[in-house]
Amino acid sequence: MNEFNIVLAGIGGQGILLAAEIVGAAAVRDGLNVRVSEIHGMAQRGGAVVSNVRLGEKVLSPTVLEGQADVLLGFEPLETIRNLGCASRRTLVLMSDERVPPAELALRGIKYPSLKEVIDRIKSFTEDVVVVEARRLAEEAGSSLAQNSVMIGALAGTGRLPVKARILIEVLKELVPEKHVSTNVKAFKLGYDSVRKAYKEV
To answer: Is the pLDDT assigned to residue 9 strictly greater than 90?
Structure first.
């Protein structure tokens, strides 16, 4: 495999950097060359956070170039839209449906777009869009804070990620605080199963 590029986008407090760390560490354990970069907007809860994870033999730079993402993993719809520059027709956009309106919208009197409007915007870049009920599944697992594990599981469930699901779970167990491990493993599996149903042919 020459390269596989993932862009994780959302806001502070959603566990994006931990998710990127889990994917990157699991890829290394699975024998892949890995580069990870982090881009913070506002370094606080609610600020924009983007992380790039690049896997493959020919990967040297940690940054995913415009139009080069294989997967855009969107933890928040508006932040997903903001990072569509990395997408192309071949990109899979895997997005959480939970909308977290930024304060700037309210201050400027701008209405947050509907989920349909967000999806329509994404489809001007790629038709390959999968929406994940991340909050609902995380709460089913036992904590709304486990949405990042739902999203990693969903990514594994697409069959696109060149990293074994069992290795992702192994690394998740090591990097998540011990008292939250069972909840996060359940969240991973719920995310995996929810998307796997749509990818039975993979």
So the answer is: yes
Q: SS3 for 24?
A: helix
Residue 126 near residue 91 (C-beta atoms within 8 A): yes
Domain count, the chain: 1
* Tokens (6 digits) for 34: 């890995």
Structural domain including 95 reads 4-199
Q: 157 — phi, psi (to 5°)? A: -65, -20
**Triad 160, 182, 16: Cα angle to 5°:** 50
Three-class DSSP category at 74: strand
Task: Provide the CATH number for the domain around residue 90.
Answer: 3.40.920.10
Tens digit of each residue's pLDDT (9 = 90 or more) over 31-47: 999 998 877 655 455 68
Residue 137: count of CB within 10 angstroms of its CB: 26
